[in-house]
């Protein structure tokens, strides 16, 4: 069986850890095996324990204290340290051959938009460890209703898609926070970005950026790369829908080993005894078929 995993990405505060926990819970509820892999050296303990935790190798708190680094410099140091100690990661996830691994990544998107750290890690997982990987990029729905913010989110998602070089889905999270009907109707327009919708941002930005805005909108339209799936982490059917997309992308079903059909048995001893007696009377227990 091939090894399957999803890297959960996105800016800080979009609900990545909540989505990871909901995805783990849903996978386990349908009888599959899954584990959380924490790749955030600044993560706080949550509802679910991490099966693999980068903080056992290095933590941001220790780096900031011992090296006198700030949060961003300390995070970069942590990942540079991890990339020089990939044997630790290989050993930690080496025993999980048949399980689905959920990689909870840091919220600093600079790790894959400006510095090729996470792309290098994704390549290691795919090429050296044989993972069939998918990237899930989250943006929060209340944030993107503001058109200029949505526009910047689309560009960051496109950047991640290009640099990670992985099969990719984009997700609008925190739908449960969208309460009024007007915002809900507006949100539907953002699931599949319409260039005419995005071009309206010129009305709310500095005129000197009009040409730049127009060029970037044209770029999104030409490639047609960015679409979003809605997510409400509190709704099992919403999480299940996202999982179905991940399974299709990673070809999870195709990687499953064929299973032998289960032998049927009868729990009622009396009924079993009656059937056995009838079989013996009819054919001497040989299972023969009357001509």
How would you explain this protein's 3D organization?
With 291 residues, the chain is of the alpha/beta class. The protein has 13 helices and seven strands. It has helices at residues 16-29, 60-67, 71-83, 86-92, 110-113, 117-128, 141-144, 147-164, 181-191, 195-198, 210-223, 236-250, 269-283; strands at 3-9, 34-38, 52-53, 100-104, 131-140, 168-173, 228-230. It has a seven-stranded parallel β-sheet with strand order 3-2-4-1-5-6-7, sandwiched between helices. Helix 1 (16-29) packs across helix 12 and helix 2 (60-67) packs across helix 3 (71-83). The radius of gyration is 25 Å and the shape is globular. The two termini are 47 Å apart. Residues 261-268 and 283-291 have low confidence and may be disordered.
């Amino acid at each position: 069986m091939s090894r399957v995993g999803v890297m959960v990405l996105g800016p800080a505060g979009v609900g990545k850890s909540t989505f990871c926990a909901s995805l783990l819970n849903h996978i386990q509820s349908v009888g599959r095996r899954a584990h959380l892999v924490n790749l955030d050296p600044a993560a706080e303990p949550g509802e679910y324990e991490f099966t693999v935790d980068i903080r056992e190798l290095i933590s941001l708190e220790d780096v900031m204290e011992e090296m006198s680094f700030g949060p961003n410099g300390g995070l970069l140091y942590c990942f540079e340290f991890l990339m020089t100690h990939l044997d630790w990661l290989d050993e930690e996830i080496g025993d999980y051959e048949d399980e689905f691994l959920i990689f909870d990544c840091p919220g600093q998107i600079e790790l894959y938009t400006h510095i090729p750290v996470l792309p290098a890690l994704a390549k290691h997982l795919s090429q050296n460890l044989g993972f069939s990987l998918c990237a899930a990029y989250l943006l929060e729905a209340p944030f993107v209703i503001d058109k200029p913010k949505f526009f910047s989110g689309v560009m960051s998602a496109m950047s991640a898609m290009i640099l990670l070089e992985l099969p990719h889905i984009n997700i609008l999270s925190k739908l449960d926070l969208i309460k009024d009907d007007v915002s809900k109707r507006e949100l539907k327009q953002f699931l599949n970005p319409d260039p005419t919708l995005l071009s309206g941002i010129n009305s709310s930005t500095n005129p000197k950026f009009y040409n730049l805005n127009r060029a970037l909108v044209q770029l999104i339209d030409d490639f047609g790369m960015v679409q979003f799936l809605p997510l409400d982490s509190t709704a099992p059917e919403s999480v299940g829908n996202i999982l179905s997309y991940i399974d299709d992308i990673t070809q999870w079903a195709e990687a499953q080993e064929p299973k032998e059909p289960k032998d049927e048995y009868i729990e009622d001893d009396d009924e079993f005894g009656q059937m056995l007696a009838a079989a013996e009377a009819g054919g001497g227990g040989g299972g023969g078929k009357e001509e």
